[in-house]
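Predict the assembly for these two chains.
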Amino acid sequence: MSKRARALFCSPLTTAILTAAAGGVSASTDGGMGNLNMVRGVTEVSQVAYDVHMLMMWICTVIGVVVFGFMFYVMYAHRKSRGVEAANFHEHLGVEIAWTVVPALILIFMAIPATSALLKVYDTDNADIDIKVTGYQWKWQYEYLGEGVKYMSELRTSLDEVYGREPKGEHYLREVTEPLVIPVNKKVRFLITGNDVIHSWWVPDFGVKRDAVPGLFTAAWARVNTPGMYVGECTELCGIGHAFMPVVVEVKSEEDYSVWLADKKEQAAVYASTVGKQWSPQELIEKGQQVYMRSCAGCHQPDGNGIAGVFPAVNGSAIVNGPIDGHIGILINGVAGSAMQSFADQLSEVDLAAVIHYKRNAWDNAVGDVVQPIDILNFKNAQ
Amino acid sequence: MAHGPAKGISRWLFTTNHKDIGTLYLWFSFLMFLLGGFFAMVVRAELFQPGMQLIKPEFFNQMTTMHGLVMVFGAIMPAFVGLANWMIPMMIGAPDMALPRMNNLSFWILPFAFAILVATLFMEGGGPNFGWTFYAPLSTTYAPDTVNYFIFAVHIMGASSIMGSINIIATIMNMRAPGMTYMKMPLFVWTWLITAFLLVAVMPVLAGAVTMMLMDINFGTSFFNAAGGGDPVLFQHVFWFFGHPEVYIIILPAFGVVSQIIPTFSRKPLFGYSSMVYATAAIAFLSFVVWAHHMFTVGMPIAGELYFMYATMLIAVPTGVKVFNWITTMYRGALTFETPMLFSIAFVILFTFGGFTGLMLSVAAADIQYHDTYFVVAHFHYVMVAGAVFSGTAAVYYWLPKWCGKMYNETMGKIQFWIAFIAFNITFMPQHFLGLAGMPRRYADYGLQFADWNMVSSIGAFMYGGAQLLFLFNVVRTITHGQPVSDAKVWEGADGLEWLVATPAPYHTFIKPPVISAGVEGPEWRVDAPAPAMAFKTAPEAG
């Protein structure tokens, strides 16, 4: 309630407008009127960033009060309506040297903490854990180097919530299918790159924001001292899903992290074994629809009709309704020079088989054949 | 050639008169300002509440991109070129621009450039959707086919800007009246001279960037394509080598305008004329060596980050000199607060505020948190809108009586100022909070924690948009129904050659050059009889 009260204090008028206009939105949750400043965060880097931010802000505030204060005094005291006569002086060497030298000295004073803060950001040596972070349109892939664990992390908020057909949940646009998991008190190094366009991986509480540039690996790091869930965003415009690929990091205790990692490894092994299993058409359709909505609908649209001139339709497409090898090939290899990326590393054989089967038998498409995960594996091996 | 303007549409199509071309630039830029403003209204309407209500993300991205492109290249830059066309010849005692036919060409290719750009919105694939900074490969491999129209449009805009700048440089260097030495030129002329050099230097770089894009898209090169051995980061270096000086291209003429207006309404000469000139030159020089501060999160080596951080912080020194000069000019003046002065004072306050956030952004470690958030959006709107747009508005109110011989409605002007001032701050002050709290820019949708301030910002934006319609109304009404003024010196405290010619300014001015002498307190201007209005009748016809 205190935040609400602060909001009222800040601006009764706007709060009144909000309550009147916003309906369900800000009535049920805090709309953030009290969120005014940067988070101090939970890592050394975020804390030095916050400290230097506050220092700069206060210095600017003091300068602002002095300069604007003088200006308002002039505007009050030296107005013609008070009967003053204009003086005619101009140029004064001493004053002019002073107002050049003093700001320069202030800048030198600012540069010292600014430099030491930046040195912290770049202190990426001697990491305990290396995690490769890859930006895709529009999701993140996390790979635990040397552990054989790799998975995609995608937005979990449904399109129905986005388009207002369902009420928005508490974690609207701040929830993912599977968060990145890291242990406390370990130096984690993030090796960040992009797969298609440039993205940017940002976790405000860690003070980590790094562009994910295709063809370039850069390093950032975090040593988190408090377990919890930390939410971030993609901060480089990357196409229509830019606002819909949040970053969620779960920081676990060391024991929980070890258990989680062991589970992940086991899951990967189990999943690999299902590749040989024969799936029924019904199972494939169900799984395929999920995969489609998650990985394909962003461009090709939920109804399969695409966006004219930008993203081709899959409904009625010659490739989807054509020979199976052509269809598998386009998902495995992508289309060079277009937004259609290769899904060979993004989706498992099971997911690929399911989504291909789904597309061939959804909407107006009715090819009728059945694709099994093993077919995908064979296709990959044959290449 | 006739002495007066030609009749009908041909006056505007074929004119080589600096005043006519200035007028064309100003009206065109205002039209673009309304169009770009409309795009901004669409963006703010969609961001009024979380969720997608009015448009799809695809169209949202086109709107943010077009808003930026139209405002930067279509509204602000041509507005100052228009002012330069009108005022520079009159300020330096020249009869016209040095290259009048090129002047006509440089204006008339602009409407085509923007027609092409805006037409992409109606084409298959839609308009540019990659942000006004059009980072590759989003703007190359992943762009809609209409990107080729965008590239062509940018080339035309660049050609127009280069021609306009060459014209300004040639005019200032060759057409000054006898006795008008460089250090006697009004500050507006100085800032434009320096701006024009910046434009000539960086517009070809922008042309290079879009040409490389064109090659990557259509001819199989890989300048920016990592898969082919290229580098997307190269694009950013090339773009910002243009883009950062571009920021100063926008703001330096605004400095010039304010440096004309503040002394007038303070009834006191500019405090430090020569230090203002040197500060402008220093800012222009520094603008070339700080570009990568837009790229602090790209993963540069630490030596690069440190260099660009220090160099960027340095800009605060000459900028501070300018602000201190404006304030000491007001100190012990006899101030009055007509509309142009109100906009100029708001300029000083809000631009300085934008300078403070700029200084904060220069600190690389903190910039990692600010970068690509609404904090940056707020920062550059404080310098672009409260900076360039406020000063452009001030300039129109200041010189409008000289241009058309009629006085605007002061009450309406002041009302417009206060609405614009308040609405501007309602719009952009909360965006600082949004950015610090973690809202990235160019987001079509956002989490619920950002809902309240976004709604406040949108309400402010609609009010600010409304204030511009009032501005349009006031200007049109002045032209049609304004109170006639005939004093050559419209403002009591005004100084400079443009205030010696008749009001309204005759179609041709200074066919006979004025006389300029070094006075005790700065330069003194004098127009030898016959008065310039008559001079063009007796002077031999030019070209």
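The two ends of chain B are 7 Å apart (CA to CA). The longest helix of chain B spans residues 57-92.
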